[in-house]
Each structure stands twice: as structure tokens, then as C-alpha cells.
Amino acid sequence: MILSAILVAILATISQWWFFAPITRCMTYPLTTGILVGIFMGHPMLGMLAGANIQLVYLGWINAGGVMPSNTMVAGIYGTALTILSSASPKLAVTFAIPFSLLGLLMVQIYQTLNSFWVHRADKALAEGNVNQIRFLNFVPSFIVSLLVYGLPAFCLVLFGKGWATALINAIPESLTTALEVVGGLMPALGIAMLLSYLGKKSLNAYFFIGFFLAVYLKLDTTAVAIFSAAIAFLIFVSQTAKKKEDSPKEKKVKRLTLNNRKGATEAVQPAANSTDNAGVITTDDYKVQLNKRDLIKTWLWQQSDEAAYNYERLQALGLTNMMLYPIRKLYSDPQKQAEELKKYMVFFNTEPHMVGPIIHGVALSMEEARANGQNVSAEDINGVRTGLMGPAAGIGDTVQQGIIFPILASIGATMALDHNFIGPVFFTVVFEAIIYTIGYLMFMFGYKKGKSSVITILKNGIIDKVTNAFSIVGLMVVRTMAATRITVDTPLVWSIGKSTMKLQEILNTLAPGLIPLAITLIVWRLVAKKVNPTWIILGIFIIGIALSYLNLLGVVK
């Protein structure tokens, strides 16, 4: 048990200490951490089922802009561990996880507040010309804080918690256990509703109901609906792209007199090129100091640690200063000059770090290289471009990554996991990370190659909106399938009329299967759209779910 406690403590530590994103990125998701906790504690199937149930609640919880609405890392790891310790039904994992997630908000506040101290130490180190301290301050103090705040409680929970966890479960009456399972069956409605609110475009809402009927009438599973919806989205994307080409300016024939056309014959005139396409592109032919492909790859790899010391005061600043340490050393040989150039990165900065955001760092690197070779690029120019682009990159990156790609893949992975298929969490983790880091690498290299004009080109051509719409269609249809299959409650209400017995659920099924999950999803979706605090919705689901269970109006689908 000591080994299990140590392994879970390490997992809890790195779930917040994001020292290298390709390793730590999915540690924020219960679907990934649930099976790992299960393996570490000797119960992989129970861990996977618990993690998948917890993940459904947090399907639509988007951590954007440095704001964390709930601590999913703590919910997944601590909730799964307590489920295994108490040998409880995986459906009860949700009721264990939610209190931990709320406690986790206090833990993240402590972590990010204490990390602010290391930023000031880094300021002092650069003022003294000591660039070597940047690496240490980015990784070591933040690891110690995460170990104490996240790892130590997890260690104690696993090592000492089995006795009281088992006693807690045994003390709960059977009727209350059933009621809590009803709460667990209702709770995915919140995650689904939050995701629908995030994806919500009135013009696309019909796809949500199409997904519902595919699931309840044709009995298609999540993977089949995802393939079907992807085909629809692709056709719509192609159609919109083709329409834009038809509407774009075409060459036209005009008659004009020139030195080479003295008779005024008809000539073809091409549309004017966008003046921003080549704006700001810097040639490198005469550079004395240049970054090669190996330097770029190393810098991109260091960028994956930009949130190791994430803090409230300047968010990603210390991590990005750590990222630029390698190329700045390559561009400048004088340690004092290196420290001076790194100071510009010790300012507040925050954007989506993995998929779209890297294009900003590629642009900054291109400008740094030009600055080191005597081009007219000031520190203010570099930070002006970085600051101006961090908002648009975050908006696109968070929307596509957290609001579209993640829920689609997590829905498929959770469905496979709940069907007792170990491939589910592996599929989600591998495919999700392969997509975002491949795109992130390409964006980083594209930003470096094109300079500051690259993002302007991407934002102006309108392709982002079309891609987002296409993914949203897939997301809406897949999420509706989840609502039909993973809100696992029905009504056991039965009444007698003479010698006949009437079952309400059978009557509802003749109208349309899945009406109760659909109604619950729509109600919670409406509450989310009305900006009701998710914590109040959680509390309401607890109270109403328990009450309706005791009144025999709701039960768990067997």
C-alpha cells in the first residue's frame, strides 16, 4: 500500500506541476488519471469506470483564461482513489469527486499564489545577470509546492484512508446509496449542458437533436455517430470553401492604353494582392547569427514547460522566460546581454499554450533573431506583437481544443471505458495529444517562418470560422449521443387502474425513448444559459435527485 500511496502522490503532484505538457496535459482529465490510479492501487477496471463516470460530469468545464471553475485534477485522482478504497460502485465516484473538486479550488489558489514569489526571485536574478537561476526557479520551487499541496494529501488518503472510507460506505443506508446513484446518473447532464452552452450557435442546434434521434431510434453508438457527423461536417466545410472561391474576385478583362499596348487591346487584370501577406517578413540572407532547425525544435520543447510555475501574478511569464533562455543564449554570447533580453519576457502573459498559442512564440523567435542581427526590432515591438496576439490565439485555441476536440474524443473514450474497454482512455489520451501537439509544432514553425504577418493572414482568411463550425457539428451530435446514453435515470413509477398496471417509463418509450434524459439535459442547459452558478446547479441536482429517488419518481437504469 505504501508503493500505491507514493505512485498516486506522484500522479497528484504532476497533475498540477505541468513540467512538460506532453506528459502532464491529460493528467488534468479524470478519464486518463482514473485508470492510472486504478493500476497503481491494483484495481484498474474499477479505476477506469470511476474515472469515466467522473469525466462525464466535467465534459463541458472549460479552463480558459487562467480561470478554473472546478479542479478536475483533484476530482479525478482523489475521487477515484476513494472509490477504490471503499470498494464502492463506480457510479458513486461522482458523489466522492465533487466535494474534492471544490476543495481543489482552494488547493490551486494556494499553489498559484505561492508561485508568485518565484517570479520576483527571477526578476532579481535577471537584474544581477544570473540567467542560470531561471531554470531552477521555473521547476524546483513549483515542484515542492505541488508536492506539498497536492501530493502529500493524496499519499495520506491512500495510505491511511481505507479504514474510514470503508466505514463511511457501510454507514450509508441502502436507500441513500440508491439515491446517490440517481444523483450520479443525473450529474453528467451538467457537463453536457455546459459544453452545449459553449458550442451553442442557434444555426447549429438542430444537429444536437439529429444526434439524439440517431442514438435512440437507430441505436448507433458514439463512434458511429462521430463518423457520421464528421462526414456531414466535411461536406459542409467543402461546400462553404467552394462558395467562397466562387465569390472571390476574379481576373477581369479591361481595355487600356499603355506603352506596350498602344491599340487599347483587352488585357487580363489580376485582383490586388492583400497588402499584409508579406508585411513584416524579414530576410535572413545576411544574418551573422542564425537559429537552425535543431534550435527551433529545442525551443519548442522548452515551451512545453511554460506552465510549470503558473501563478496568479504573471501566469505564464516565468515559463516563457525559461523557454527563451536557450535561443537567447544562442543569439547573444554576453551573459549580461542575455539577462537584459530575457527581461522583456517577465511580463504578464497568458494564452492557449499547446495548439494555437505556439504560433506567437514562433513569431517572437523570428523577431528576436532579427533583433540580434541588427534589424530595427525593439523590445517594445516584440512584446507589442505578443500581447496583441495572445487574446485571439487563446480564443481560437481554447474553443477548438477544449470546447470541440476534447469533448468529442473524451465522449468516445468514456463510452468505451464504461463498456469495460481499456482502449477507451488510451485512445482518448494518445489521439488528443497527437492532434494538439502536431498542430502546435506546425504553428510554432509557421510563426517563425512567416514572422508577424502569419497570424494576420490566418485570422483574415476566414478559414478558422469554417473549421470551428465543422467541428461544432461533430461535437453537438456526439454530445447528444452521450446525453441519450449516459444520463442513466428513468422513472420506476407504476400505478394500477382496476386490474391493469401502468408503467410510466413504458408509456414514455412509446412516444420517444430517452425523453427523460433529453428533458433533464434541456433543463440544465437552460440554467447554464441563464448564467446560474454551476455550484448551485450541482447542489440542486444533489437535493432534487435524492428527493425524487425517495419519492420513487426517478431510479437508475438497470
From TrEMBL:
**GO cellular component terms given for this protein:** plasma membrane
State the PANTHER family in the record: N-ACETYLGALACTOSAMINE PERMEASE II COMPONENT-RELATED, TRANSPORT PROTEIN, PTS SYSTEM
Name the residues that span the membrane. 6-23, 35-61, 67-85, 92-111, 139-160, 180-200, 206-238, 424-446, 507-529, 536-557
UniProt-recorded name of the protein:
PTS system mannose/fructose/sorbose family transporter subunit IID
Classification via InterPro entries: GatZ_KbaZ_carbometab, PTS_IIC_man, PTS_IID_man
Q: Which UniProt keywords apply?
A: Cell membrane, Membrane, Phosphotransferase system, Sugar transport, Transmembrane, Transmembrane helix, Transport
Q: Which Pfam families match?
A: EII-Sor, EIID-AGA
Q: What membrane topology is given?
A: Multi-pass membrane protein
Annotated signal peptide = none
Q: Which GO terms describe its biological process?
A: phosphoenolpyruvate-dependent sugar phosphotransferase system
Q: Where in the cell is it found?
A: Cell membrane
